[in-house]
Design goal:
Distance between the termini of chain B: 32 Å
Number of strands of chain B: 4
Structural class of chain B: mainly alpha
Largest sheet of chain A: 6 strands, mixed
Number of helices of chain B: 15
Shape of chain B: elongated
Helix content of chain B: 55-70%
Shape of chain A: globular
Strand order of the largest sheet of chain A: 6-7-8-3-9-10
Number of helices of chain A: 10
Oligomer: heterodimer
Structural class of chain A: alpha/beta
Radius of gyration of chain B: 31 Å
Strand content of chain B: 5-15%
Strand content of chain A: 25-35%
Chain lengths: 260, 396
Amino acid sequence: MESLRVENIRKTFNLSRKQRKLQNTDEKRKVAVDGLSFEAKPGEIYGLLGPNGAGKTTTLRCISTLISPDEGDITVNGMSVKNESINVRRDIAFLTTELKLDEHFTPNYLFDYFADLHGLDKATKQKRKAFFFKRFGIDRFAEVKVADLSSGMKQKTSLAIALVHDPGTVVFDEPTTGLDVLTAKTVTDYLVELRDLGKVVIISTHILSVVEKICDRVGIIVDGKIKISDTLDNVRKESKDGTLEGIFFDYMIEGGVADA
Amino acid sequence: MRDIWTVFRKEIYRVFSDKRLILSIFILPGLSIFLIYSLMGTFLGDMEEDLESHESVIYESNMPSALRSEINSEYSVEFHDATDVNREILEDNVLEGEYDLVILFEENFESKIANYETEEAPDLEIIFNEGEQNSTRAYNQVSAILNNYQQSIIQNRLDNPEDYLVYNLNAVQLVDEQNVLAEGIASLMPMLIIIFLFTGAMSIGPDAIAGEKERGTIATLLVRPIRRRSIALGKVASLSLLALLSALSSFVGIILSLPKLMQMDDNMPDVSIYTFQDYFAILLVLLTTVIFVVGLVSIISAYAKTIKEASMLIMPVYFLAIIVGMMNSFGADVNHEMWVHLIPIYGQINILAGVLTFDYTIANLLVTMASSLIYTLGFVILLNAMFNSEKIMFSR
């Protein structure tokens, strides 16, 4: 299993008139990510930490091939997201609050549907379904329409569906945001299990405690630029008070995102 | 191919596993058309029956007795004397629909006619209400009799009436029942077919594509290892089938309501006038037209951010299709120019009218089908590009 490399990517977006007004700017384009590089290795959880609007989600969307970087490249298991996007998608799981489930269907139907899109044979599909449905307790609501599920149930279903093809790289955008404590624990516990299975796991979050609890490496991103990318211990050492919170706020102040 | 089939199956299942969608897409269109058209037919029939059974109320003064007998023998009329009735009252009653007709003959009408060489022509005044069907009908009936009456008087005044006979007209009316029925069907059916195909595609297309964007489910699909082309083809194929079934429902509704609507004494129109080849040609045109319409609706739906926006953007195209349909309906001649068959919608309606009136060539049929397929292919390529465009797929 190879690592995931993000190499000097840059991504800009057009700003609509409404967005320019909201952001109080005359600029017609916004640089969301600017020369960003980092590496996430197998058997590690990499945490991309930053405030809202820092470029975390844009970076993860580039990794997932939903959008393409304007400059630079990303390789997943040696495959370029620009030139081999379909192969990258075969080996990656991407989960974000932005990805919704069609509320008309049941978890059972959706699992089969996405398994079919990944080309899984019937036996593998049934085996994985049995595993995930038991692991996340989906069995008891497998035949209930998504529209009638709680947000925790929906997140568990999304998790199972994202992992249906047993990917080597798992990318989660804000994995615990909006979840109750129990579901959040289920998700973070499973991310640790995936790491222990030797997968590349990348999460983005603005919650420091999540990074402290599960991440092995961390990258702090402010204004589309990565400020530091190292092991959690080394990042802590960079801080005056030896805490993740300390260095995080140092960069926020430096970037003008927080007051001194 | 497997991916197209997977997307196709999911879209079909989505509709057929939802009772409300089944009701709104497949049952309500046909049922509502059947009920509306049947009610219209019943209403028209009742109106006709009322007219037929109505006894005309005619107020007259100084009407020649021969004329009165003639009218009485031809139509069901209730005569009243208007001699002493004020003119304003007569007019008011005609306006209010109480009287159907007022005929005021000048005093000594017949003797003035008889002494036409010494006397001036007598006056005859008829008052009727054009806004009342019974009044207009009574006027037309009485006018016809008055015309004959006038003709007979003129003939009596001539020494040799035969000298004034220029020719003997003998019009022989031949009716090809088959052609009359075919013309009747072709005057409306092609336009209705296009309208039904559009409404069918419009009822599901925006939800299947713009709805996925609005709900955020499109991103879940786009991170899977399938080509965007497969998504586009799977969507267009499934929507085509659903639109065709929805159009079929409307079609069944109109066919079942035809006997009532066309006052055919509850008999179904004899559709056996068409051969297997005609039906096969209609089927081919329908299939190529439905994928064209669905392709068009899909493009608009993919461009729109929400279902509401998609429905709004499709409306002008829908109205345009109706206008084009109307241009080619109601007795318009089938156009045989080859280039006409390249025009979207117009060409398809034209060839449908041609097939239904037994007035088409295989070359024209093939050109229409080929052009529909080429347009659809263009739509699928465009749809594929749209699914690949970040700006279109993720714009908010």
